[in-house]
Structure formats: C-alpha cells, structure tokens
Amino acid sequence: MPFDNFEPAIDSLIAPARSAFPVTPNDVTALPSLPKAIYVGIGGNIVLRGVDSTQDVILYNVANGSILDIRAKFIRATGTTAMNLVGLA
Q: Which residue range(s) make up the domain with 49?
C-alpha cells in the first residue's frame, strides 16, 4: 500500500473525496452512503433529494463530466436521464 501523507488529516466536506461508489438511481432505496458530491458521466436530468430536504428537486440539463456539490440521500430513477453517476464520499 502506498504511503499516505494525508492519512492523519481529518476528513471534512471541503476535503477531497476519500472513496467513490457507483450510483444506481432508485425510486425507493436511499444511497448506500451519503456523498460529498455526485459525478455525472453522461449528462441529462437528475431527480434527487438532499440530505436535509423534505422533497425532491429536478436538476435540468446537467452537463457531461459535471461534479455536483450536493449531499443527496436519494437519486430517483423516475425522471433521471443522466447516466454513469458516481458518488464521491
């Protein structure tokens, strides 16, 4: 394993992500981990609910390669047309 100069550093919301996981939009199931951000491989619309929100919102026309600085607890399948989503945590 390579030496990590930043291992003793405390993780925070403004620090770079320490892990990544594929996001499969689902209308019922929450994301397995709360991300710091979402990477969008192929652009489109994204229907999501933020960690402290009580309703879903639609982000329209998100561009390919975007990184969305939002802590989403749900990314819904219905209405989401963006693909190759990755949670950055």
A: 20-88
pLDDT, tens digit (0-9, with 9 covering 90-100), for 10-56: 788 788 899 999 999 999 999 999 999 999 999 999 999 999 999 99
Residue 10 lies in a domain: no
Q: Are strands 44-50 and 57-62 parallel, antiparallel or unpaired?
A: antiparallel
Positive or negative torsion for Cα 51, 88, 19, 84:
positive
How many structural domains comprise the chain? 1
> H-type helices in 6-87, by residue range?
none
Q: Tell me which of 79 and 9 has the higher pLDDT.
A: 79
